[in-house]
Specification:
With 406 residues, this protein is an alpha+beta fold. Helices cover 46% and strands 10% of the residues. The protein has helices at residues 6-17, 27-33, 49-55, 104-109, 132-138, 147-153, 156-168, 174-183, 192-204, 208-214, 216-223, 240-246, 259-278, 311-323, 325-335, 340-348, 370-384, 392-405; strands spanning 22-25, 42-45, 59-63, 68-73, 76-82, 84-86, 98-100, 119-121, 125-127, 140-141, 171-172. A seven-stranded mixed beta sheet has the order 3-4-5-2-1-8-9. A two-stranded antiparallel sheet has the order 6-7. A hairpin with a 2-residue loop joins strand 4 and strand 5. The structure holds adenosine-5'-triphosphate and magnesium ion.
Length: 406
């Protein structure tokens, strides 16, 4: 059987005691049968929203327009949704109307894939009129009903199909797959935030490489991103910015990623470009030059770090200064270089930012103004290049010498 958490079981029991049907449904049933821990537990019920509210002391109308009431059990919400049939979709995005029903089968039939169309409670056991269990066992993503119709109703389901394929390592049933090829363009009618959410989960999936390769055309049409032919995502950490950065040409702005993601992707690519030049052009495992324009000269060919600092270490410090730790780490991971040298720089406490410099602007004896910042940066340059240790006395001496030079 399925191990339903006690709070959720309490909700099921209470609804039963009031004469209603109630089941856990969808993703939590699917994940339980796969021996995975469900992210959340959704309850579906024959009770109308007003009837649900009568059964519990504490509820919140979180999605009442589509029949969802949050029941608060010991300060935690459990989402309870009335059996529902979606009306016609005239916009390919959301149903014009929703109609409540007293039939679990009707509710399950409106769901996207057979593996998501199962319900369970202790008394009646697994309810699986669409054959989800078999598809789950065989690793198959199959639409409930006619694929063309289901994808025309809500084109996001196309991306969801590929997301589940990637995350679960499943394959797409043939009719479902041909409808995906036929209707991929329609995904662009969907709100970009919904596309973003599914695409992010897709690229984090265990079979992301396979799905990106096999459905490259579909995904390009669906997202508007240009997806390149070869990727090597599977060995990368489960980070959306790192994986996006490794998909050359994928512009995260198009999918309205948050500023932090957009910036990190841009910075990782900046590091990649610089490292590519540093290591003398296109290494086999370099992720391809991306981004507009050519690289600015991020390094100096002739390395002047006299004191035996390895050139690679100096180069990483320069990049850390310019792009930050996350970007440098992401780029090294994408290149497959390993992060050992980076970690050594960090644990040794190498100075690569003004914050770490052993002097501040107040120490320089200069009048306030832009010269202070310039001077600090010049000192930082010398430290990063390995020409000067990051020691207060030495920095002050060098500073005084520069002041005297005029
Ligand atoms: P996860 O929570 O891991 O993303 P999930 O299957 O629970 O997976 P949700 O988006 O939480 O996905 O949706 C819950 C359930 O609602 C799904 O299992 C499915 O039955 C149904 N569902 C979700 N989105 C759609 C959709 N676009 N079309 C039809 N049914 C959907
Ligand atoms: Mg869910």
């Amino acid at each position: 059987g399925i191990q339903v958490p006690e709070k959720v079981n309490y909700v099921l029991r209470t609804l039963h005691e009031h004469g209603h049907e109630a089941f856990v449904v969808g993703g939590c049933v699917r994940d339980s049968l796969l021996n995975k821990t469900p992210a959340d537990w959704d309850v579906t019920t024959s009770a109308m929203p007003s009837e649900v509210k009568e059964c519990f002391a504490h509820t919140a109308d979180t999605g009442i327009q589509h029949g969802t009431v949050s029941v608060i059990v010991e300060h935690e919400p459990v989402e309870v949704t009335t059996y529902r049939v979606d009306g016609t979709y005239s916009d390919g995005r959301h149903p014009d109307t929703v109609r409540f029903t007293r039939s679990l089968e009707e509710d399950l039939a409106r769901r996207d894939f057979t593996i998501n169309a199962m319900a369970y409670n202790e008394e009646t056991g697994l309810q699986d009129p669409c054959g989800g269990r078999t598809d789950l066992r065989n690793g198959v993503i199959r639409c409930v009903g006619a694929p063309e119709q289901r994808f025309s109703e809500d084109a996001l389901r196309i991306l969801r199909a590929l997301r589940f394929t990637s995350v679960l390592g499943f394959s797409v049933e043939q009719n479902t797959e041909s409808a995906i090829y036929d209707l991929a363009d329609r995904v662009r009618m969907v709100a970009v935030e919904r596309i973003n959410a599914e695409f992010s989960r897709l690229i984090l999936g265990q079979r992301a490489d396979l799905v990106l390769t096999r459905y490259r055309g579909v995904l390009s049409r669906a997202t508007g991103l240009r997806i390149p032919a070869v990727n090597d995502l599977d060995r990368l950490p489960a980070s959306v910015p790192v994986r996006l950065a490794s998909i050359a040409d994928a512009d995260p702005k198009l999918l309205k990623y948050d500023n932090r993601t957009v910036r990190l992707v841009r910075d990782i690519r900046g590091v990649l470009l610089a490292l590519e030049e540093f290591s003398g052009g296109s290494g086999e495992n370099s992720a391809g030059a991306c981004g507009a324009g050519r690289a600015m000269p991020l390094y100096k060919k002739e390395n002047r770090s006299g004191e035996g600092t390895e050139p690679a270490r100096v180069q990483l410090r320069r990049l850390l200064r310019m792009f930050g730790e996350d970007a440098v780490r992401g780029a090294l991971e994408i290149r497959g270089d390993g992060t050992a040298l980076l970690e050594r720089i960090l644990t040794d406490g190498d100075c690569f930012s003004l914050r770490q410099l052993a002097v501040t602007g107040c120490d320089l004896g200069l009048p306030p103004g832009p010269e202070v910042g310039k001077r600090l940066n010049r000192l930082l340059d010398a430290v990063i290049e390995g020409e000067l240790p990051n020691e207060r006395e030495l920095l002050l001496r060098r500073n005084a010498a520069w002041t005297n030079e005029g």
